Fold each of these.
Amino acid sequence: MNNNKFYLLFIPIILIIVISLTIIEATLNDNHVDAIEVNDKFNSNLLFYNNVIYIDYDEILNFNSQINNLINVSSSLNSLVDIFMKEDKNIKMYSEEDNKVLETNLSKELAQKLFGSYLNIKNDVVLKILFRDANNRQEVKNIDFKINKEQILREGIVKTAVEQVGNTGEKYWEWYGYNHRVEWCAVFVSWVAEQYDLIDSGVMPKFIWVKKGVDFFEEKKQLKFPNEYTPKGGDIIFYNWNAHENDIIDHVGIVEKVQNGYVYAIEGNVGYKDVQRKKYKLNSSYIYAYGVPQF
């Protein structure tokens, strides 16, 4: 009998364990993957977990008609991205394991509109779309450019300018239309801009006189002075070598980077000779202003 009483002491403990396991199971069920297929997040057709929707772009295109209905709000993913961009200005595309991943925040309302027939969406969500072999996809490149346009253009301008270091001026002034030597620092800047169609689009000027470049940015209210602005790669830098004597803008180049209190620039016609990398203290009196293109 005493033994029976001893065993009875374990009944409350067992009950507590059972109740605890029930609560844990219910909690896990609440956080369970809500998906059409439950797979690894980058191998699934549609996966919803912890308020993140994961979609493989290949599967969107090749899955059944139900999934295709998800993108019927537009004729292409580019158009759908436009909808996302209006909803969330922080939409981004980045590389993960050599693929491109599009990520955006969706309001509960938009997420329900797009995915409500398939997923139980109760809050705002994050949408992640994986593009396999993204480097070979023109559509993905177009979307990447649309989302990261300024960053891509700035990096491209700097890369192209750096690649010119050591060149003399013939190809730049000949491109501009001259068959003889001219002062070509502004011509060099114009040539780099042309490589990215920034002149025809009105983002950058085609100019040979440095003051014309200053006027271009000033008219657009895109001229920034050193005491009010820290430049970024791809900005245009204007110089006045004799600021204490006159207001003549003498020279122009392309900002490469800012580092440790210095601004590095790529400039043509340095020493009336070639393209060179130069650096100046950010508070240098030589720096007149920066042209900040609106990409």
Amino acid sequence: MEEKIVLTDDTGKEEAFSIVEETQFQGKHYILVENAKQEVLILRDESEPTDDYANYALLEDEREEEALLQIFEELMNTEE
């Protein structure tokens, strides 16, 4: 079964995404998600251990995003 999450933007609009892959990098948890339009996002989990729900944030640092893109590409290539 495909794992999905629903993200809410700043205007309150919700959109469903499928989790494609996940990884740990420099002590943080990241997920690669894709929507129905096949748009992909890399999100960093910023929730605390005591939080009831995950709190994901878009990456703002270009170097961080590039590093994660490479990691996710490698992970997906080794699974094929």
Amino acid sequence: MLQHAHHHIAAALRNLGSLLPDRARRRRPANQLTQPWRNDHDHSHPSVGITPSRLLAYLHAADAGAPNQQFELFSEMLKKWPRLRSVEATRRFALTGLDWEIATHDNSTHPNANSAASFCRQTLDQLPRFREALNHLASAIGFGIAVAELVWDRGQLVDIVPVPHSRLITDHNQPWRLRIRTADEPTSGIPLDDSPHKWIIHQPNPTPGRHFEGGLLRASTLLYLAQNLSFKDWLIFSQIAGMPVRVAQFEPGTSSADRNQLLQMLQKLGTDAVAVLGKNIDLKFVEPARGGARPYEPLQDYCNTEITILWLGQHLTTDLRNSGSRAAAEVHDRVREDLLTHDVADESQTIRRDLLTPLVQARFGPDVPIPLFRRSLVQAVDTKTLASTLAIAVNQLGLRVPRRWVHQALGVPEPQIDEPVLSNENPQ
């Protein structure tokens, strides 16, 4: 009787969407290796009390195959240095902010070439975390490497899981082999090259044989060290700058207890401005030299300028305080466009190799040409200039330009069926 009632209660709770486990709803693909675990939330805060020797120890540990401290330090640098946070986001958003598309391989005559491109486009559109994965891969500009896991279920790609940088290590005996720590292998990790169609490995400007030396991380750490140490000294200096130096003289033979008490009184003078001293104590106030010298500001400006040049290739678009003009800034901004083009090419190569290739081969076989992953760089072009260029290309040169691409480039939505439109024939 009780068992029968228990079944009725359990069924009623499930129908109401209770907290009872629903195995069908919580089911995950069995081959997803990057499962959440406790170590992803542990932090050692390596930037606290950073010194040149500590920084060198972090870099040496990364060279030995344990880059966790190096990666965690860079994450904290982004939180503590506003200029680095700004230029890193500018460089990364310049890439991820562009629209992407899947294009058929150039000059391909294979009958399934268009079908392969359409299949890849539809698959990626349906992935809930594809944009998150692209943002994670773009972080390799700074970290030097970013890895994402392809989750397959019954031969279909169902998810892309960004792999935390803290999971990455290398094989001690074979340092060229990249590994990922998992809950089943928390120490030695699992090798990525054993499953070539399981991982997206993005390494812009890689150093051959060394997985953790690429990116802009290491050059940024040196500037951060100088900026961080000088900023701390600047804060201490700002607390005492302009304050008179308090000097007290005491008679020979004064006990150490009296001297310590006198020192405490002098310290309180800096805040309370009140002290009780004996007649035998000679108190003097030495006024500091008056001047406009700011010993730490030039070093701060130097670090901010150099970190901007390192990430953006220029600094006039962010530093127009002392010199430069809008025209010069626009010229320097085109140098940054070169870096963006390079970032787009790196990303396209990685996505085509590690994502589109297994997608196409799993569906169409090895003979179908792999489509291309592209970013739309026309968003960085002035629309008036683009419209003039299109008019010459179409009307004078007779080039065939896809209407969909033109609408996307100019930011003009395509009209729906039976929707009123403005045109030369119908200006109303």
